[in-house]
Design goal:
Layout (H helix, E strand, L loop, with lengths): L6 E8 L2 E9 L6 H25 L13 E8 L3 H5 L4 H10 L2 E7 L2 E8 L2 H15 L7 E10 L2 E7 L2 E6 L20 E10 L4 E5 L19 H20 L1
Parallel strand pairs: 8-10
Antiparallel strand pairs: 1-2, 3-5, 4-5, 6-7, 6-9, 7-8, 9-10
């Protein structure tokens, strides 16, 4: 049919209006009146087809089929754009690699807009979860499932949200007193933790695992260890006394 007539005009849309159209012309131009008439014919044809469709499908499906392509736009704060993109685009590239979705980010009106295009529901769910995890604000008192990233003699650093690490101190791992981290946790272990403190000045997070565990019957907490700073201060006093004796 492309060889017939001077204009090939395709229009698609809903009852409320046009969603897409395509026009191919074999002449240099057409009168405006012809365009108006073509759009009116397209509207009548579209409404007729939609009416026939409603006879077979009385209501819209609440959800798309799992294998149906889909698009989602997530609005984020302007200062969160960098976190989603990552250094040199590393974060957004990783999201696309893992999910298989296409992710684009743009800034408009002092806000960020993350557009996600996926071929199926699983791909979309992975991408959305990753992005929401990056821009989510940690809340004190919330419980998270984290991954042990590094071990130190004094505890472990746990990534409890994408890109957010917190200190799980050795004293917060279990109710029993631990003298060493040997054999307690391993890098890569998943552990449930509770966010107990967020220092907004330094941005540091403090986590606890033991508060999620039942306290042993008859358990009595030991008093905290003495502050070593006092001993350092006393040592400073002794050094000052020695210096005075040498001056005399």
């Amino acid at each position: 049919e492309d060889h017939l007539g001077d204009m090939d005009f395709k229009v698609t849309g809903t009852e409320k209006g046009i969603t897409a159209c395509q026009m191919d012309l074999k002449v240099n131009g057409l009168p405006y009146e012809v365009l108006v008439e073509a759009l009116d014919q397209a509207r009548r044809g579209r409404l007729h087809i939609l009416g026939e469709m409603k006879k077979a499908i009385t209501e819209v499906r609440p959800e798309l089929k799992p294998q149906t392509p889909r698009a989602v736009v997530i609005q984020i704060a302007q200062d969160q754009i960098g976190g989603v993109i990552g250094p040199g685009g590393k974060v957004v590239q990783e999201i696309q690699r893992v999910s298989g979705a296409t992710v684009t980010i743009e800034e408009r009106d002092s806000m960020g807009y993350v557009s996600i295009f996926a071929n199926n529901a699983d791909s979309m769910d992975i991408a959305v979860k990753r992005i929401k995890g990056i821009v989510a604000i940690p809340e004190v008192g919330e419980v998270y499932t984290g991954t042990v990233k590094t071990l130190q003699p004094f505890g472990a650093f746990v990534e409890f949200m994408p890109g957010k690490d917190g200190l799980l101190h050795i004293s917060e791992i279990t109710w029993e007193r631990l003298e060493t981290m040997d054999g307690v946790l391993q890098v890569g272990d998943e552990v449930q933790v509770k966010l107990v403190e967020h220092d907004k000045k330094t941005g540091k997070f403090r986590l606890s695992r033991k508060v999620l565990l039942p306290k042993p019957e008859g358990f009595v907490e030991r008093p905290p260890r003495e502050d070593r700073g006092d001993r350092n201060d006393r040592g400073g006093d002794r050094r000052r006394d020695d210096n005075r004796r040498r001056d005399k």
